Amino acid sequence: MSLSIVKSVLPGGVVEIAPRGEIDVDTAYEVREAIAEVLTKGRPSRIELNMRLVSFIDSVGISAMVAGFQTAEVSDVKLVVTEPSRFVHRQLWVTGLLGLFGAPEPYFAGSASAEEVKVPGA
């Protein structure tokens, strides 16, 4: 599967980068380039990496996200992850990087918010 990336400007000078597909050894550079391109065109108040439509991410993809975070940080711009798919959320949690990206709750398709999802045994 390939990767496509959509960039949008949200209210308040926030730029959203929304990848769709798989972020792996073949496509991770596209995420790094998208973040770098946003930073070369201006200085947004924040970059939101919306990971809702990412079906897979490997260690190279995670590394690209960390590199993007560091690039944004050097530019004094906060980069956060929003609406991570369950797979992305799990990978960020397992690697101990969830907090680095703002500790986002996983995106659950078909629900209004993560708080409404009933967790078995909770």
UniProtKB/TrEMBL annotation:
STAS domain segment(s): 13-118
InterPro entries registered for this protein in UniProt: Anti-sigma_ant (IPR003658), STAS_dom (IPR002645), STAS_dom_sf (IPR036513)
PROSITE patterns associated with the record: STAS
Pfam families attached to this UniProt entry: STAS (PF01740)
Family statement: Belongs to the anti-sigma-factor antagonist family.
Identification of the protein by name: Anti-sigma factor antagonist
Species for this entry: Plantactinospora sonchi
Lineage of the species this protein comes from: Bacteria, Bacillati, Actinomycetota, Actinomycetes, Micromonosporales
